[in-house]
Amino acid sequence: MSKAFSDFESKPMASASLGQVHLARLRDGRPVAVKVQRPNIREQMVEDLDALGDIAEFLDNHTEFGQRYEFTRMLEELRKSLMRELDYRQEAHNLTAIREQLKDFPHLVVPAPISDYSTSRVLTMEYVPGIKITEMTPLARMEFDGEMLAEELFRAYLNQILVEGFFHADPHPGNVFLTPNHRIALLDLGMVGRIMPRLQEDLLQLLLAISEGHGEDASQIAIKIGQPRREFDQTEFSRRISEIVGQQKTATVEQMQVGRLVLEVTRCAAESQIRVPPELTMLGKTLLNLDQVGRTLAPQFDPNASIRRNAAEILRQRVVKTLSPGNLFSGILEAKDLVQRLPARLNRFFDALANNEFKVSVDAIDEKTLIVGFQKIANRITVGLIIAALIVG
């Protein structure tokens, strides 16, 4: 230690289950925070997970409860997450990635890792002074705009989840600090989540449906996100989701918890024989923590309204991007290719018809699905005509 640091405080300034953090100073004078992993914690964690694995396997194979919730699959996701957390090099990567994402959010800060002094079991990062938001005094709360900080925090996390697809999954109040210059510092980025683009679109629609109290829409999106089993009862599921989501219409600002609603939708889906992706549970937990952070910063902060505003803005930006010249040009090229190939395809069609080789396969189509499909086509044609008129004009 003496070769790397000119000073190293033996008493930790923070402790957690996996390690503890010490204040130190590099040889060049920079103050740093050094996160040191507890001895043998990795081996102990593996033993505990193996024991839990035996229990999960028994429940999945011998109980209806286990078959419904698939504890083995849930435990495997937990195992992957914990193994990543135990590798501090991975957390250093997370710090760098999230710092880059937050560069457009001036009131949010993440400490920079110092790779030359970090290993898989030791993480050295810049020291960010501050106090936990849970330890702020009433007088301290009067010195900053908590509503503004909470709004920026929600906007940043929704951008991470719904745009970047890579987000800090453990923003509980104990990991959130207020710096002396009234910025929000996010610490302990060992746990992160990843969401694929297709799922991002579904989650965006689900959050909008929940925040607006549209239970029927929320149930349909949840079905789309998950994998219904043979025993699934769609009518009963839609009724339960509508009841859960509808509760927020009469809730006060203090009672609204979007994260809790997402978790209740997830639980209801599992109980109703829908296999839900683990990302949905992680999203619910992340939003539940954000709800608590937002209210700690500003007791009257409305997380529901914030999600509605920011999710709607993300949706607007996606629509604008879809109508960009590049995407329109791509569509024109696809249409050109279709027109060029059409004569040859028509010739093959008439040849097959003349030779009595033409077969027709008729499948029953759900009327609702057909109507929705026609509506989408009509919307696209309308948008195309409007854009064409603008171009000609």
List the helices and strands and how they pair.
Elements: E1 5-8, E2 14-15, E3 19-26, E4 31-37, H1 41-62, H2 64-69, H3 71-86, H4 88-101, E5 108-109, E6 122-126, E7 131-132, H5 138-141, H6 146-164, E8 166-168, E9 176-178, E10 184-186, E11 192-194, H7 197-211, H8 215-225, E12 227-228, H9 234-246, H10 258-271, E13 274-275, H11 278-297, H12 303-322, H13 325-354, H14 367-392
Helix pairs in contact: 1-3, 6-11, 6-12, 7-8, 7-12, 8-9, 9-10, 10-11
Which tags fit this structure?
393 residues; alpha+beta; five-stranded antiparallel β-sheet; four-stranded mixed β-sheet; 14 helices; disordered C terminus
Quick one: how many beta strands?
A: 13
The N- and C-terminal alpha carbons lie at a distance of: 71 Å
* Helix residue percentage: 55-70%
Shape: globular
| Portion in beta strands | 5-15%
**Tally of alpha and pi helices:** 14
Major pleated sheet: 5 strands, antiparallel
Estimate the mean pLDDT confidence.
Answer: 85
Low-confidence parts: 387-393
The radius of gyration is 26 Å
Q: Report the order of strands and helices.
A: EEEEHHHHEEEHHEEEEHHEHHEHHHH
Structural class: alpha+beta
